[in-house]
């Protein structure tokens, strides 16, 4: 079984902010046993900014981008050497992979990254993945490693995504923490509300439960089960892997029954959305119920500035409840769609050189 484990800063660092090497050793011990039973692991590890800041003995949390980037540059090698030392005790090799959103956005980069990760795993190496914080500027950053871990799980066809955090899972009531919801079949609005109320965001980490729910949605739509659990319960990994006595382990969020194939999952979640195409009800029905492509005739409005090949969101112009009901790769720039919206093919031919009959071909379209 292939498993992506996401570890947050609060799990990986001690109270003084320095890396908790004892914890990382115990993670290595647990993963070593499971790896010997032929399970495969990828680790998405935070901790760079926190470790860098503590190493430099800076007491306040960084606010500016350049501080965060500088701290990450100091902390990332410390994080990697902690993993490397811990796994070396068991004769295991780790590798460092630093990613930005750009690596997921461009199809060729995405496929390269996927091949690299797969090759590392085939060679029994555990990839230790983090955002490339020292260079990632706003346009290309994820901001939180929860989303990154879900995209990695989707890209590598993992079976499970384990998000280790500093709470035991999603509580069934807020603010009075009562008990953990053991299993969620589908993320409903009620669950989202509970998750937003629940908070795992400590002083050191980023994200909170909200980004974990977003991660679980991405993972779930790509066929990956998500487990949100307390990072201190490392010995629960055995139960998670075997799927036994789950009740004690945290919150399991089941993958959707209808999951996207790899390319569609990439279109839906990995590529950055550059704009929105608003369609009429008839076009929405053709897309959702009839499996059709998107034609210019059904388009009412365009927003954003995008180019051919970009990912765009599709919303219902007449009903705001159907906001962002689909995503797809556009065949035309936004400027051109502005000129041809609402028009039939014969009229369009008089306005532009038609390269494609569809604005978004069905093969490049995903209903969310
Ligand atoms: N990439 C950041 C770090 O290594 C952490 C982001 C997060 O906590 O989600 O410090």
- Could you say which overall geometry the principal axes of the C-alpha atoms support? globular
Q: What class would the helix/strand composition place it in?
A: alpha/beta
Radius of gyration: 22 Å
> Which percent range describes the beta-strand content?
15-25%
Order of SSEs: EHHEHHEHHEHEEHHEHEHEHEEEHHE
Low-pLDDT windows of residues: 200-205
Query: CATH top level of the largest domain?
Result: Alpha Beta
Give a list of the ligands: glutamic acid
Percent in helix: 25-40%
Q: Compute the number of strand runs.
A: 13
Would you tell me which CATH topology of the largest domain applies?
Carbamate kinase
Biggest sheet features:
8 strands, mixed
CATH architecture of the largest domain: 3-Layer(aba) Sandwich
Distance between the termini: 27 Å
Give an overview of the whole structure.
The chain has 368 residues and is α/β, with parallel strands linked by helices. It folds into two domains: 2-263, Carbamate kinase (3-Layer(aba) Sandwich); 273-367, PUA domain (Archaeosine Trna-guanine Transglycosylase, Chain: A, domain 4). 39% of the residues lie in helices and 19% in strands. It has helices at residues 9-12, 21-36, 48-55, 65-88, 101-105, 107-122, 145-155, 189-197, 208-221, 236-242, 262-270, 281-288, 334-340, 345-351, and strands at residues 2-7, 40-45, 93-99, 125-131, 160-165, 183-184, 225-230, 251-253, 273-279, 299-304, 311-316, 326-329, 365-367. It has an eight-stranded mixed sheet, sandwiched between helices. Strands 10-9-11-12-13 form a five-stranded mixed sheet, with helices on both faces. Helix 2 crosses helix 4 (65-88) and helix 3 (48-55) crosses helix 4 (65-88). The radius of gyration is 22 Å and the shape is globular. Bound molecules: glutamic acid. Glutamic acid is lined by residues 8-9, 46-50, 72, 130-131, 133, 144-145, 205-207.
